[in-house]
Write a structure and sequence with these properties.
Elements (H helix, E strand, L loop, with lengths): L2 H10 L1 H12 L14 H13 L4 E8 L7 E9 L3 E11 L19 E3 L2 E3 L7 H16 L6 E8 L10 H7 L8 E4 L9 E6 L1 E10 L3 E2 L9 H13 L18 E7 L8 E2 L2 E10 L5 H19 L2 E10 L9 H14 L4 E5 L5 H6 L4 E3 L13 E3 H14 L2
Parallel strand pairs: 3-6, 3-7, 7-16, 8-15
Antiparallel strand pairs: 1-2, 2-6, 4-5, 5-17, 9-13, 9-14, 10-12, 11-13
Length: 405
């Protein structure tokens, strides 16, 4: 069918696109970590919509989680058989959203979709319902027009992306082995307002939780104690200066260097005149892929031992998150196919980039499965008054129709 007919299909379904966003927004799919009850209600609503609209091959995968009322964290796989099953073309979006944060910062009810000035407002409308809905309507184009795609289309609507993916993509890859290494996998969960950038690489992520134990004493007699706060502060500065050790540059990323920064700090004592005997701080490290994290941790260990010797304290640390991710080549079939679709539909010359890290794409790449992350976004993720530009959603759906060819 012609390019115009594809655009006409999406414009004709503009109201239906907004309605699906409305239905999904009304379901607060928040993980237990955010005091939510998981994705089950939202998954039920989505599955009903898919079946109502002619999607026949739908599989549900339930990851057990006793913390939620349903007892499971569901993910859906929707299949449209193609003329060839090798490779299969996947689009993976996530069902879960983050909590609203301070409700006083919202100008609308975050769980009731509001449409205004070409935008729709509500929690999750962009992150990641824009990707989810654009994929659903791109696939619906093939269903409604009774077109058999050249390659099998797979839509994956996954749980638990916002809190580490234990009950989402990690569970699916460990228990169900959904993917083949030759599959083409696109994740519409990151991008720019022009839809130009295709993310093919992530920095390695290393989070540190550091506990320093000294000896508490009166503020007037530091000589009788071991100041855990002073030792922790010095250690945080020395860890930050490791940026000068791991100092290579890579212009695929912005910033183009490894970043090692102190972030969260826990309360130690209740009074100004107490030398603290304990102190806790945290570091967020985003390391260029050229550096193995074990080499960074070796330097961390070395600095911890130096601080112990100098201040008479004990330093212990854990790694709440530690993840390495190889890059997807810009020449990989999935990257080139998406770039060709952007050029064909919108005249866009794609730009390949790397990001600071943290998408589900890294989970795939670690298993040797190339994946790309892309969308046309105003970057509203986790913001109060989150919105989705409706034209961006339709533009992305048009790109995906081409990507599926």
């Amino acid at each position: 069918m012609s390019v115009q007919s594809e655009s006409e299909f999406l414009e004709k379904n503009r109201a239906e696109i907004i309605e699906l966003e409305r239905r999904l927004t009304a379901c607060p799919a928040i993980a237990p970590e955010g005091d939510g009850d998981g994705e089950s209600q939202k998954c039920d609503v989505l599955e009903s919509w898919l079946r109502e609209n002619g999607f026949a091959d739908i599989q549900r995968y339930n990851a057990p989680d006793s913390r939620v009322s349903s007892g499971v964290r569901p993910s859906l796989v929707v299949t449209i058989p193609g003329k060839s099953d090798n490779p299969r073309v996947w689009v993976m979006a996530h069902l879960d959203v983050v909590a609203t944060g301070d409700l006083s910062l919202w100008q609308t009810d975050p769980w009731t979709l509001t449409e205004k000035d070409g935008k729709i407002f509500g929690r999750g409308v962009e992150d990641n319902q824009q990707g989810l809905v654009s994929a659903a309507f791109a696939a619906l184009f093939y269903i409604k027009n009774k077109i058999t795609p050249s390659h099998t289309i797979k839509l994956l609507f996954v749980a638990d992306e916002e809190n580490g993916s234990k009950f989402g993509i990690k569970y699916l890859m460990r228990e169900h082995h959904l993917f083949k290494k030759e599959d083409l996998i696109l994740i519409p969960d990151g991008g720019d307002p022009d839809g130009k950038t295709i993310e093919i690489a992530e920095k390695n992520i290393l989070w540190l939780s550091v506990h320093v134990t000294g000896k508490q004493t009166h503020g007037s007699r530091p000589d009788n104690g071991a100041n855990a706060c002073l030792a922790a502060d010095d250690l945080a500065v020395r860890l930050h200066k490791l940026e000068r050790v791991f100092d290579r540059k890579d212009n695929l990323f912005e910033p183009n260097y490894s970043t090692i920064h102190p972030t969260k700090h826990l309360k130690n004592v209740d009074s100004i005149n107490i030398i603290p005997g304990e102190d806790w701080f945290f570091m967020d490290c985003r390391i260029l892929p050229c550096y193995p994290l074990d080499s960074v941790l070796a330097e961390v260990d070395k600095l911890c031992r130096e601080i112990e010797a100098e201040y008479g304290v004990k330093v212990e640390y854990t790694t709440p998150q530690k993840a390495e991710s190889p890059a997807t080549s810009a020449d990989a079939p999935v990257a080139q196919k998406l770039a060709a679709a952007l050029k064909a539909v919108h005249g866009i010359d794609a730009k390949f980039i790397g990001i600071g890290g943290g998408t589900v794409g890294a989970e795939l790449r670690r298993e040797g499965i190339p994946a790309v992350v892309w969308s046309t976004l105003d970057d509203q993720a986790h913001q109060p008054n989150e919105y989705c530009v409706i034209d961006n959603l339709i533009k992305d759906a048009r790109t995906l129709i081409e990507f599926f060819k």
